Amino acid sequence: MKKLFSMLLVCVLVATMLSGVTVFAEALPVTVDSVDGSWANATWDAATSILTNVDGGYAFKATISSGKATLSAASATLITAASVTVPTSFTVGETTYPVVAVNGYLLTGGLTPAVTTTDVKTVVLPEGLTTINANAFRSLTGLSTINLPSTLTSIGGYAFAGAGLTSVTIPGTVTTFGTYVFSGCASLLEITFEEGIATIPDRTCNSCSALTTVNIPSTVTTIKAYSFYNCKFIESFGAEISEDVWDLSHVTSMGQEAIYVNNTGWTGELILGISSITKQMIRGTGLDKITFVNPVTSINADNVFYTMANLRTLVFEQGPAPTAIKSTWSAKLTPALTIIYPDDQMDSFKAANFGTTKIAAVMSFGGYIGSVVAGAEGGYDVTYAVANYKAKNVDKAIIALFNGDDMVGAKVVDATVGTTLTTVNVPVTGTVTSAKIFLLDGFGNLKPAYVNDTYTVADIG
User: Fold this and answer.
1) Pair type for strands 42-45 and 50-53
2) Domains of the chain listed by start with CATH number
């Protein structure tokens, strides 16, 4: 019988080793290596695979596969230590097991839904760690400091959601992101994505209400939907290549409401490389100019620049499709827009968007000049349309004619809502090279109006 039992035991041990999972049959001495030496006094329970930091007052359960360890919560009990260090490795007997991953709810007893705790202030992660699984440090509202090692390759969904972090740097080695990774981190002020990261996933910083600075490298090509949704106080986003000029020319794809700021603190010009403009992709900023450096081939015309009260200029350096500009682009824009479009595409653009049957499309932009031709008595006949639909309190407009930077003629006209062009003769005192239209409110203040293009000498008859 003893011989049979021994044979069975050997079979079990062999099968276990072949499976790649290590089971410890007896208590053995343990040595733990950690960044800060805080695991000098440690114990290992072979029966439960519990690794305990005696001095720190906390423990983890280790699952070992292929000679590497993943740590989980040791019990359904919250860790209350102010500082927690995840060990680099531990040695049982003569075998060393590097720690490569941490599981969900690591410090909150593995309890779901996440239990909020303010006790843990600092977490130290080791070099060699590759994976932070979903929910690992979720709802640690007291956690203000954590280092993400340069070996990290994967961060699971909600990994830091609701944590008390004030700043964080994502190493460029991370290739796998879950969603909502930093969602609801109400104290987060600055986040840095290091060179090498290509995609910022859905809702990465959703509702990080204190976030002011987002550092994004040139390797990022995609910012997915709601990545920075309801981040009310962003003032710096991407690389500032000159004063108030923000370079995201490397970003070729943005999802719906990818950046929803809802304040005017982020100002200046934003340079984008996207080719498809999605619904409300940038919302509520204080930006006054957006430049598209690549051809825009697709536009979702539903409130694209929603509540962008300071936006004055859109520049399409290589142009969208001729029928791109629609009235619903700017449903919540207060000022009128100037749209700068490639000269060689302007005729088709005007014909598609601002022909006599399509003037209604411009009404949300404020005003439109249709043509400028030589008229009677040395003046010029200007066809125009002006609306007060978006330009509130506007009842007059000024048609201005220029020779270079010098105004050589102007005329005040009524600002009326209409869908057809009106012609007015504007007297001039010199040669005319361009024409513009301005709005005049009831207080005598000039407001910029949409201008379909700048008329050159060749355009003016």
Assistant:
1) antiparallel
2) 105-360 (3.80.10), 365-448 (2.60.40)
